[in-house]
Amino acid sequence: MGKSEIFCMKPFVLWMTGLPCSGKTTIVKDLQKDIPNLAMLDGDELREWFSPKDFSKAGRDEHNKKVAHLAKLLLKHGVPSAVSLVSPYLENRENARTIVDAGDQFAECYVKCSLEECEKRDVKGMYAKARKGEIKGFTGIDDPYEAPEKADLIVDTENESLGDSANKVKEFLKSRNLL
Q: N or C: lower Cβ tally within 10 Å for the chain?
């Protein structure tokens, strides 16, 4: 066991929301280095199984609900999880909090990053395709992203290093006695 490993006091659901390419998954992968039992529920990976190719508002709502139910199941079995999901609408995140129904063991983390910076980070070229009209309904381009009004935690990946953002998340989880 490495000296840096952290084990959970209580399982939790960390709901990471932000624009595509804002750094959600990157932060979770960094957290997993120190929290080895942290399950990552990545929106892109889960979409293939749960809601392939349905990016309509109803499809996004349904996908978010399915992921929230999976996170609730993991929580029930004592597994901490970090959900890396755009969750573009306020309603999505409110529904997730209600579905998981875990009080302080649920936290919404807004991964804040400007659209311009997210576009610079986009190695897959999704934003460019969306701007050309090749991808319809892309969050931040022709579909809205509703920034959280009352996130439990905000990390600013445009102005913080990966390490600083991950440490901020760990300190937050410690403040809730989850780590």
A: N
Helical spans, DSSP H, in the chain: 24-34, 43-50, 57-76, 90-100, 115-121, 126-131, 162-175
| CA 45 vs CA 21, 25, 49, 65, 137: distances in Å | 15, 11, 8, 15, 19
**Active site residues per annotation:** 87
Q: How many of the other CB atoms lie within 10 Å of CB of 9?
A: 13
Q: Half-sphere exposure of 40 toward its Cβ, with a 13 Å CA cutoff?
A: 18
The conformational region for residue 79 under phi > 0 = left, psi -120 to 50 = alpha, else beta, is beta
Measured CA to CA, the distance from residue 32 to residue 21 in angstroms comes to: 19
Query: What percent of the chain shows pLDDT beyond 90?
Result: 78
List of domains in the chain: 13-174 (3.40.50.300)
The percentage of residues in the chain with a pLDDT greater than 70, rounded to a whole number, is 92
pTM of the full structure: 0.91
- Give me the amino acid identity at 113: C
Q: Is the dihedral of CA 21, 117, 60, 133 positive or negative?
A: negative
